[in-house]
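We emphasize that the prediction below concerns an isolated chain of 252 residues; any contacts that depend on oligomerization or on bound cofactors are therefore not represented. The input was used exactly as deposited, without trimming of termini.
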Amino acid sequence: MSTRNTSISTTTGSTTTGTWDTRPRAAFDLETTGRNSRAARIVTASVTVVDADGSVIKEHEWLADPGIEIPAEASEVHGVTTERARQEGRPAAEVTRELASVLQGLFDDGVPVIAFNASYDFTVLAAESARYGIPQLDRFPVLDPYIMNKQVDRYRKGKRTLTALCEEYEVNLDNAHTSAADALATLRMLDAMAGKFPKLRMAAGQLHQLQVGWAASQAADFQTYLRKTKPAAVIEGEWPVLPPEDASGGDF
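Result of the prediction step, given as a token string:
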């Protein structure tokens, strides 16, 4: 694990009082072997922690050997090949254990963790943890600007990718699809979104609970839309982690 500190203390504490944007917070991102969140393996992971003013005070980065071939399609996205992962990466079980420990430590301190399309990243981590016998996270509180944007700006036109939203909110995103860059950009973009939509400013735990309902409602609406032409379509609405399933047949 690569870790950079600019402060000894993260000045963490309970987030039961005050709004999330005025307290220390963290961002989490993964780059993986594929799109199926239950089957994908971790390739790179990043956790960035900022203080109440938004200054970076701690950065964690990992490169894993996922133990399987990294599909060419995935390597084209994040730039990590199977050869590099095998030569430079650490065993996936070690990376998963350290990553889970860092995130659990943040949750235990009441620090909200921000992740774009959080159900993907947290489901990947949950599946990896299950593979290696690592305890599952107590996943509170999580903040997901993807879910929030669909709720507060539902009639917005265009894509809702991280890149598109960073452009809209004028957030710099260099090295897109590297976990470190994506994590920090996600955090900055959510801060900017809260500036435009002040109703998002509330205690992190309260916002977490609202997102559970928003995600379920958004999934149900999308499923209803899809079933007009695909009667068997199923959109899962659990958030911030999907329930476990057999991931043995997953493809990129």
